[in-house]
């Protein structure tokens, strides 16, 4: 029987080029390229490494978003995943983390049984790190977040992970089925292969009715949290360079400058 892995991934705006409208405080998405969320790429890579070791592994990638999120599924399958599922419906648009996890829960249940569920630690356009843990809770499976090392026994049932913490790490043993969230230190994601790019893609699009999700638990109206405003920090003032021919002269000039500003 195939070892079944589900990877939850998100298409996000490239934060290297994103800007914020200073009047409305909202993200300017027009003309901004979309990319596979970085931590989700690490999650997919670890799933692909399992498939490299155990070829009888089936990887399903689930994403939620507008129709153009199919580009993400194309990329994931070209990297080595077996199939991609896009959940796209206006009814789930504007969902916060709670509503998003409700949608993903319904999608995962429609996919069926799984042995391992992967997701990235967080999305770069939100940085909440909430969806993965919420999804695990709703599915009733054990979870480990911030995974930086992964090892699976030959029985393909016992997993040992190293979990990153602020002041160290934890070594945790966990049994499948379970959910893990990946961080960038876990691995280096591979590129799409030429054979993967040109191979036939198994991609599906499901709407809210297909996954039979409760419409009272998804979408903007059902979301208990909302973004009040987004903004960029005000630019700092121009710095001052203190000059002098010797260290003593520089120090003297610094003292004069600080006294003029009444800093001392």
Architecture overview:
With 264 residues, this protein is α/β, with parallel strands linked by helices. It has 2 domains: 215 residues, HUPs (Rossmann fold), CATH 3.40.50; 30 residues. It is 28% helix and 27% strand. The protein is built from 7 helices and 13 strands. It has a 9-stranded mixed beta sheet with strand order 11-10-9-12-8-1-6-7-13. It has a two-stranded antiparallel sheet with strand order 2-5. Strand 9 and strand 10 form a beta hairpin. 33% of the residues are buried.
| Cα distance spanning the termini | 75 Å
Mean of the pLDDT scores? 91
What is the N-to-C succession of helices and strands?
EEEEEHEHEHEHEEEEHEHH
Count of helical segments? 7
Morphology call: globular
Poorly predicted residue ranges = none
What is the CATH-assigned architecture of the largest domain? Answer: 3-Layer(aba) Sandwich
Strand order, largest beta sheet: 11-10-9-12-8-1-6-7-13
CATH superfamily of the largest domain: HUPs
């Amino acid at each position: 029987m195939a070892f079944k892995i589900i990877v939850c991934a998100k298409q996000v705006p490239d934060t290297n080029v994103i800007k914020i409208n200073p009047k409305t405080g909202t993200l300017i998405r027009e003309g901004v390229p979309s990319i596979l969320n970085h931590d989700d790429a690490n999650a997919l890579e670890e799933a692909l490494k399992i498939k490299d070791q155990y070829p009888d592994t089936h990887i399903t990638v689930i994403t939620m978003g507008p129709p153009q999120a199919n580009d993400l599924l194309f990329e994931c399958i070209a990297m080595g995943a077996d199939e991609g599922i896009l959940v796209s419906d206006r009814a789930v648009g504007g969902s916060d983390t709670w509503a998003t996890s409700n949608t993903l829960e319904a999608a995962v249940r429609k996919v069926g049984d799984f042995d391992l569920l992967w997701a990235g630690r967080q999305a770069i356009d939100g940085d909440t790190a909430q969806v993965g843990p919420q999804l695990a809770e709703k599915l009733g499976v054990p979870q480990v977040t911030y995974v930086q090392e992964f090892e699976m026994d030959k029985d393909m049932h016992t997993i040992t992970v190293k979990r990153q913490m602020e002041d160290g790490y934890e070594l945790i043993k966990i049994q499948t089925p379970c959910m893990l969230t990946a961080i960038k230190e876990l691995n280096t994601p591979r590129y799409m292969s030429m054979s993967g790019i040109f191979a036939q893609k198994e991609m599906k699009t499901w709407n809210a009715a297909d996954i039979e999700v409760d419409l009272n638990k998804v979408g903007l109206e059902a979301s208990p949290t909302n973004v009040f405003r987004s903004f960029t920090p005000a630019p700092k003032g121009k710095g001052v360079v203190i000059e002098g021919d010797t260290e003593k002269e520089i120090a003297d000039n610094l003292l004069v400058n600080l006294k003029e500003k009444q800093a001392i």
